[in-house]
Amino acid sequence: MASTGGRPDPDEARAALAGIQQVQRAVRDTPWPTWLYPTNALLLGAMTLTFLLEQHRTAAFLAVALVVAAVNLVAGYRMGAPWALPTSRLFLAAVAAAGACVVAALVLADLTRSSWPVLVLAVAATALYSAGAVAHRRSTGPVGRAGTSRPGARGASRTGRRDR
To answer: Each residue of 15-45: pLDDT tens digit?
Structure first.
């Protein structure tokens, strides 16, 4: 690795690291496309419902899981941050709770012949993810017409249009 000069002093190093952390946070707080939230919520519900199938349950589950991964990866690449996890703790907790509903549906589908617990868990997974999506969207702000993430952000007016 080539060096660009002498060794930085501790203050310069701290400032450089703070700048990196600020950029990483900005990438993680980038608003997602609005269509991605309901798509993910419905796919989580569908993933949960695959446990009601009598045959090919695992194949159906894996197929829906691959669709979830593909949709999120494509959306992430289009945003320029395919592997970035949001910083919203409420969103991350809601996603974990929705995932727990999916796992609970897997267990309950094997323990009971009744389908209503899986249906309730599918609705819960969808609702939990949706609630987390609202929290995530509010934490990142709406995307304005000029592509700015928040009204009043640098280069944007309160109307969401670029200042001239």
So the answer is: 877 777 777 777 777 788 889 999 999 999 9
Residue 162: closest CA among 149, 145, 140, 150: 145
**DSSP symbols for 64-117:** HHHHHHHHHHHHHHHHT-TTPPP--HHHHHHHHHHHHHHHHHHHHHHH-S-SHH
Distance of CA 80 to the CA centre of its chain: 14
Q: What is the pLDDT of residue 144?
A: 47
> What residues pair up with 162 in beta bridges, in sequence order?
156
Between the alpha carbon of residue 37 and those of residues 13, 52, 72, 126, 162, the distances in Å are 38, 24, 10, 10, 27
- Distance between first and last Cα of the chain: 43
Helix or strand (DSSP H, E) at 151: none
Band the pLDDT of 142: cuts 50, 70, 90: low
Instruction: Identify the three-state secondary structure at position 60.
Output: helix
Q: Give CA 16 to chain center in angstroms.
A: 28
